[in-house]
Amino acid sequence: MPEMVLRLIRASHPEPALAVTGVAALLAWGVGHRPGGVAVVTAAVLASQLAVGWLNDWLDADRDAAVGRTDKPLVEGAISRRVVGAAGVLAALVTPPLALATNPAAAVLATVALVSALLYNWPLKFTPASVLPYALSFGALPAFVVLALPDAPAPPLWLVAAGVLLGAGAHFANVLPDLDDDVRTGVRGLPHRIGPAGTRTAAAGLLLATTATLVFGPPGPPSWSGLAAIAVAVVVLPLGWYGSRTAARRGTRPVAVFRAVLLVALIDVVLLVIAGRVV
Ligand SMILES: CC(C)=CCC/C(C)=C/CC/C(C)=C/COP(=O)(O)OP(=O)(O)O
């Protein structure tokens, strides 16, 4: 793969972008999209993730350089700021037409999710409302996937609620490794205002609530696989919480809660797809 492409991928926040796109693809398959529908939904979600990730690094380049972020190609000077910004604008522009290949109502939801996420990049991440775009975008994501079906069914409330809780939890988990650096560069979102202990607790608590919503939300009794998912969340999330706390005390990047959150989110969706109970 050409070097430039690899650098662009690194500037896109590839871990969360792939996780969110993978979850959307599995969900699309689980709710009954045909292969073409799965492809369109996946492409629209991937484009929105790339747009948000690239424009985030484009906007944050000076702040990331000020705190010496070693994981950012823009800080290394490995890629120009103009290229990353242009890639972000291009990805944002192709998201609505891609989503429109399903139906207009679904395209509106995909666009709302994108715009809300871009508003996180600027200005909401600096305010106490920093959690809102995550909650809105992640609530809109499963609603988009369901509404994008050929007969455009109404998305179940429990699924949207699970998206909102997952998004809010992901915000706290994502900010956790950067709390100190952010404060030095003037970023004061909700997690910075409630501090590291509150942030770790919010991330783990919201993910546990997501899992419970997914297991107990659908009609009928919970499945054994659903109960197993809760058991995994109950073990993995506190382990991630503990790992992040230990890393923070050692002065290394506390990414364990973030990884635990991604793992629990993926397990939730895979179990739901296998059980065929999403809608
Ligand atoms: C469905 C959909 C579009 C969901 C996206 C929701 C959303 C608000 C995503 C933001 C992702 C992102 C680029 C975080 C980086 O934040 P940061 O600048 O705090 O972290 P960093 O230091 O790692 O760059």
From TrEMBL:
The keyword Hydrolase does not apply. It is found in: Membrane. Keywords: Membrane, Transmembrane, Transmembrane helix. It holds the Pfam family UbiA. It is a multi-pass membrane protein. InterPro entries: UbiA_prenyltransferase, UbiA_sf. It comes from the Bacteria. The chain crosses the membrane at residues 98-119, 131-150, 156-176, 197-217, 223-244, 256-276. The keyword Transmembrane applies. This is UbiA family prenyltransferase.
